[in-house]
Amino acid sequence: MKISLPPTERPNRVYPPGTPSLHGLASVITGVVVVCGLYFGRAVLIPITLSVLLSFLLAPLVQMLRRFHMGQLPSIFIAVLFALASLLAVGALITAQLVQLAADLPQYQEAIEQKIETVQEKTVGRADSLMSRAAVALQRVSPPKPNPPRPTGRAARNAPAVPQPVEVHEPSPTPMQLAQRALSPAIAPIETTFIVLVVTIFILLQREDLRDRLISLFGSRDLHRTTTAINDAAVRLSRYFVAQLGVNLSAGGVIAIGLAIIGVPGALLFGVIAALLRFVPYIGIWIAAILAVFLAAAIQPQWTMAVYTLILFIVVDVVAGQIAEPLLYGHRSGLSPLAVVVAAIFWSWLWGPIGLVLSTPLTLCVVTLGRYADRLNFLTVLLGDQPALTPAQNFYQRLLADDPHEAIVQAERLLREMSLIDYYDKVALEGLKLARNDAMRGVLMPDQLQRINDALVDIVENLEIADGLPDRLARSEPADTASALLASASADLSERHDSHVSAHPQMRSEAAKTSVLCVPGRGSFDEVTTAIAVQLLGRQGLAPMMATHSGYRSARADEPSFKDAPIICIVSLDAPESPPYLRNMLRRTREWRPRATLVVGVGGAPEGGAEMGATGASHAAPTFRAMIEECLAASSLQHARHASHVGGAD
User: Which of 224, 368, 370, 635 has the most crowded Cβ, counting Cβ within 10 A?
Assistant: First the structure.
């Protein structure tokens, strides 16, 4: 019998804490609330934001004045007065240029009308002629309409009278009204400037107190990390804003001088506009360029002034963007190009023209904060210019996407900055570990495993030794293999002979006589890992041989090629876990070849490293570099023993 409870008695469903759907809903609600707060509170937030950014710009000046043994309060007031004087000068300059441009426009009326007539003739005029021709053709086809009869007699007397125009004259404004009309547009900017300066003074005065409050708010449990993050972010942002302001002012000055030489009216105004809009990368300066080019094209009957103006903006943007900015703060601004465009649209929608100018600084502050705040790290991933994936993740992702060509292109790009062995250790090996983990979880199907292995073989073959590709192992910085070498009893002897191998090319020529047998494990990617080891060993002058896992087990020690190899490398990504099959493989190898040097890798130090090194017969090599160093040390040791044996016999 089914029992149903009334609605008031039904138990409530309790969701466990941390439900993803609830977290997602909470994040969406938080984002909507923040955006609404930014939009409806813009009258308060815009002055505060301007104050914070102005404090970043004035902080280096305050610190410089403090170095001259000036007090904190005098230094802050001098910096703020300097900022106020600069703002007043820029405002006066813009006002004077606007008044002058408005007064000079009647002089260019004839040229502007001529350009407008030319444009109309080329566009609207042709359309009017086509429409008139079509109307004439229609009139010829359609029958004429009879004219309506005019009213006469009584009907004419009863016709409505024509309305007479009426003019309304307002009284002339008083001097007070004229002053109010003239000053009302300037009241809001003056009020905002006053608020910004006052808030900036208090921010600079209480800078240390605000820092302590931020530390207490975001990370009082880890004072070292939080203090380092806040100081680093403040210094980086301050240097970036000061450098950006210097570049923008220089670019605006050059544009103003160039436009004045060309003869464009309002050259200083366009220089100021270009300097302000350059805070919006990629698109800001071109907004000013479009305005200047349109004005230059309108005031001159010819097009030479417009062409020269466009060339001036192109040259200034190329020099500032490709030479000045990389020298000052590198090629990267911290934001991706798409993030810059999206940020400009977003902040313009929220705060209008001021939001357009402040879009890049505001977004850069958010991205910098996301680098240190875990909850805001997604903003750094979405908006920052850092690669979203590490080279190893990108390597494996290209393999999953069945795109080995892109992986080869990535390898060629990385090989311009690192050696081949570093690429195999830091990129390919880490990517192979990711692939092995997915294979162990069973998410890779057999056909996908085969495609990945085929793609890996293609990549290794394309990175084979080619003419002109130098051997850079000796020039690369040696890896830290101390932990790996300590896993074996003969580590000291290996280190002693390793230095001789690197220093004397003779040892490298002698090492060419040493055979190295490379045996893969039975993992999904052990064969291609062994192929990489064979390639790297061959680059070092050794004579590597590659066997298969099943062939090595069946051949045992009676195979001549196996019997003659003094060094045996067991190459497997399973080495860190040291599975039973790998331990059995090492035990059988010791039984078959007790005098051979065993090197086990790669992927990390084996868990059974102490047990394997107890007999002094095996060495753990967590990386390809460590494996090569172990093999070279074993080779030099073999030659040293052979030389001492020959010398004793003589």
Answer: 635
